[in-house]
């Protein structure tokens, strides 16, 4: 298939492109041209300006793609600007678990319906991230049903290449002896590995499914379990203080995403415990090597 990937030069976007290539697809990556990529002559490249509809028409409006992946659709106007110009068979948006207003263990796709949700045309800065993503999905499914679209809802994506460094934060502060303010030690949180997120997205391209679908590693873990593991491995104790550095996951209640829909379609996610401790070990080694 001829595939266009918007947002394929970092984090799980890189894994998505690599997975598509391994599956034999012809891949073009669309970027602003500011970041180098690692794909060499394996991909084609085009430079676009995502927020300029006239540029989108000029750069991608004349080509047809079997599948378009959009990893950077943050609001309804992002969707309108792109899909008003695009010619493709399928459009796959990377969405987020944040669209769910009442997150809990085994949150299912039916708990947010973008087709019935009141649509507002907006820019990213008009709403908080969660509401802007709801509007992006609503625009997609209400206004552009002809694209046979999928919204892939993911929990926190983590990995060695995680530029947000949210999980890394906890390891770093323990090793450096900095105090931290954590308000949700015992809440059970769902994650997905960045490589698995990319693979799941690439797999979706080869399915006939249309609509919203969850992706999530099997199982959950609490910050208490994470911190106690780091304490054990480093022989250092976390220092808790209300005046300490604010934990990036503060405020997050227990949740993960129900993946029975993906399972029924044939995708099997890894168990969280099979890789998250290895990731913590890598974080520990990196930090200890630099101290």
Automatic annotation (TrEMBL):
Superkingdom of the source species: Bacteria
Reactions the enzyme catalyzes: UDP-alpha-D-glucose = UDP-alpha-D-galactose
GO biological process: galactose metabolic process
Pathway where this protein functions: Carbohydrate metabolism; galactose metabolism
Keyword Transferase (UniProt): no
Keyword match NAD: yes
Gene3D superfamilies per record: NAD(P)-binding Rossmann-like Domain (3.40.50.720)
GO cellular component: cytosol
Gene Ontology MF terms: UDP-glucose 4-epimerase activity
Keywords tagged on the record: Carbohydrate metabolism, Galactose metabolism, Isomerase, NAD
Top class in the EC scheme: isomerase
Cofactor(s) named in the record: NAD(+)
Domain NAD-dependent epimerase/dehydratase: 3-70
Protein family according to the UniProt entry: Belongs to the NAD(P)-dependent epimerase/dehydratase family.
PANTHER family reported for this sequence: UDP-GLUCOSE 4-EPIMERASE
Name listed for the protein in its UniProt record: UDP-glucose 4-epimerase
Organism: Clostridium folliculivorans
């Amino acid at each position: 298939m001829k595939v266009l990937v918007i947002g394929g030069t970092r984090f799980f976007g890189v894994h998505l492109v690599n997975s598509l290539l391994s599956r034999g697809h012809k891949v073009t990556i669309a970027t602003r041209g500011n970041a180098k990529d690692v794909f060499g002559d394996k991909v084609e490249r085009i430079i676009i300006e995502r927020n300029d509809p006239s540029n989108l028409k000029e750069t991608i409006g004349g080509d047809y793609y079997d599948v378009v992946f959009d990893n950077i659709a943050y609001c309804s106007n992002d969707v309108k600007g792109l899909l008003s110009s695009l010619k493709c068979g399928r459009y796959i948006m990377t969405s987020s678990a944040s669209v769910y207003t009442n997150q809990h263990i085994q949150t299912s796709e039916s708990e947010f319906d973008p087709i019935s949700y009141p649509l507002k045309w907006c820019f990213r800065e008009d709403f908080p991230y969660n509401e802007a993503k709801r509007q992006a999905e609503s625009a997609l499914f209400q206004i552009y049903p002809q694209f046979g679209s999928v919204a892939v809802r993911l929990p926190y994506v983590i990995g060695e290449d995680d530029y947000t460094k949210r999980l890394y934060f906890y390891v770093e502060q323990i090793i450096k002896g900095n105090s931290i303010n954590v308000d949700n030690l015992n809440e059970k949180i769902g994650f997905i590995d960045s490589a698995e997120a990319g693979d799941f997205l690439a797999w979706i391209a080869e399915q006939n499914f249309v609509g919203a679908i969850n992706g999530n590693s099997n199982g959950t873990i609490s910050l208490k379990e994470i911190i106690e593991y780091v304490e054990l491995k480093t022989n250092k104790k976390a220092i808790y203080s209300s005046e300490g550095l604010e934990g990036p996951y503060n405020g997050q209640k227990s949740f993960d995403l129900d993946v029975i829909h993906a399972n029924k379609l044939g995708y099997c996610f890894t168990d969280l415990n099979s890789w998250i401790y290895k990731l913590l070990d890598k974080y520990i080694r990196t930090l200890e090597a630099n101290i």
